[in-house]
Write a structure and sequence with these properties.
Layout lengths: L1 H9 L7 H4 L1 E2 L5 H10 L4 H12 L14 H10 E2 L4 E7 L5 E6 L5 E8 L4 E4 L3 E3 L8 H4 L2 E4 L2 H13 L6 E4 L9 H12 L11 E5 L3 H10 L3 E5 L5 H7 L8 H11 L8 E7 L7 H11 L4 E7 L13 H13 L3 E4 L28 H6 L4
Parallel strand pairs: 1-2, 6-9, 9-10, 10-11, 11-12, 12-13, 13-14
Antiparallel strand pairs: 3-4, 4-5, 5-6, 7-8
Helix pairs in contact: 3-4, 7-8, 9-11, 12-13
The structure holds S-adenosyl-L-homocysteine.
Length: 377
């Protein structure tokens, strides 16, 4: 977008660099790589090998892809490119979390966070530049929506982490953006994450987090079986309408059945409900009870998230005792309930703090909690 504006300002004719016409290989899944090379007259298995070089081996130089025919390597050099983001900043946190600010080809920036734990490491990736959903307690919402990421831009975050020596055991689509609002690119990227010739992640190790775009939960069920996390944050429509405004379009009586259907009755699966703990807003005993009632009959795990503050959010986190008492209440009712350990807050890498350092275009400011609290009974 910045590039377009610069061109308009100088009235320069658009320059079509060879790169503009080149095939962006990271946008292709295995099938796409096979189709590309078959279309050039090579055997599909060379496409399979190309895909493996790109993802399993993380190789950039076509010359190093030694089992591809030389004339295929030449053609790739002339007509294809491996478009990786530029690391605009790398921010390590004292707790071991690392946040990368990644700059895309058009200058837009997204954030990716690597969270090491004793027995696993999780990579939190972004699916859009900004977000259109306007959840009241989320910093990404403040920047408004810029654009969707392409499959290559999504998977390049994983590729970057692996090449930086931080291969994840778990992947969460919980960074910037609403993954189900960028359906096709996200689903193709998930396919690459899961592929044994690429990142080999089992379905239970990839979690897509959504604010609840109901029709696309049904669509996702048709093409994928990754774990589903849903940003619930309120036990009733009145409060959820305010905190997660997409609820006005897809209220709880549509959301809950969609999530239940997603599990397809498989007793090993459950929905993870994310519930950000906002002091005085959604953390009362009465609301815990309402939450228990709401989730009755849906195999569930509730993940309580202490609110991560950001400038002028207008909210504060429930204190640890309140969170623990809320958690125990859920647990006593037979729900699995955990409290998310906040990681990376020293570098603003925690949930809801990712803003990619672009201008605030939303105009939203103070008083969010007050506005939300206002209509509460
Ligand atoms: N759009 C998707 C994924 C991105 S947000 C979604 O809504 O699920 C990832 C998680 O972080 C969501 O559960 C979101 O509600 C939560 N979150 C957003 N802002 C937060 C904040 N300031 N503190 C704690 N969690 C936050």
């Amino acid at each position: 977008m910045l590039g377009t504006m610069a061109l308009a300002a100088t009235h320069a004719p658009p320059v079509i660099a060879p790169a503009d016409a080149a095939v962006s290989l990271l946008d292709l899944d295995q099938q796409g790589c096979e189709a590309l090379v078959s279309g050039w007259g090579f055997k599909p298995f060379h496409g399979r090998n190309l895909f493996k070089w790109l993802h399993k081996h993380g190789v950039d130089a076509f010359a190093a892809m030694t089992d591809l025919p030389t004339n295929l390597r030449d053609r790739l050099t002339a007509e294809a490119l491996i478009r990786m983001p530029r690391v605009a900043a790398e921010l390590p946190s004292p707790d071991g979390t690392v946040k990368w600010l990644l700059e895309l080809a058009d200058g837009q920036r997204v954030e990716t966070v690597h969270i090491p734990e004793p027995r696993r490491s999780t990579l939190c990736i972004s699916s859009q530049v900004g977000c259109a959903l306007a959840c009241r307690f989320c910093a990404t919402a403040r920047q408004g929506f810029n654009r969707n990421l392409g499959t290559g831009e999504i998977i390049s975050q994983v590729r970057h982490a692996v090449r930086a020596g931080k291969a994840p055991t778990n992947l969460v689509l919980m960074g910037m953006g609403e993954p189900l609002a960028n359906f096709d690119a996200v689903v193709r990227a998930i396919g690459i994450m899961r592929n044994d010739l690429a990142y080999m992640l089992a379905k239970t190790r990839v979690t897509l987090s959504t604010s609840g775009i109901v029709p696309n939960i049904y669509r996702l069920a048709e093409v994928s079986d990754v774990a589903l996390a849903v940003s619930l944050h309120a036990p009733d429509n009145d409060l959820r309408d305010l905190l997660v405004p997409i609820n006005r379009k897809y209220p709880l009586e549509q959301l809950i059945p969609a999530c239940k259907a997603y599990l397809r009755g498989d007793p090993r699966r459950r929905i993870t409900w994310e519930y950000v703990m906002l002091a005085g807003v959604n953390d009362s005993d009465r609301q815990a009870k309402a939450l228990i009632r709401l989730l009755e009959g849906t195999p569930s795990k509730v993940n309580l998230i202490p609110f991560n503050p950001f400038t002028d959010s207008g909210f504060s986190s429930s204190d640890p005792e309140r969170i623990e008492s809320f958690r125990q209440r859920l647990q006593r009712a037979g729900l699995i309930a955990t409290t998310r350990k906040t990681r990376g807050d020293a570098i603003a890498a925690a949930c809801g703090q990712l803003v990619g350092r672009v201008a605030d275009r939303s105009g939203r400011r103070d008083g969010a909690a007050a506005a939300v609290r206002g209509p509460l009974p």
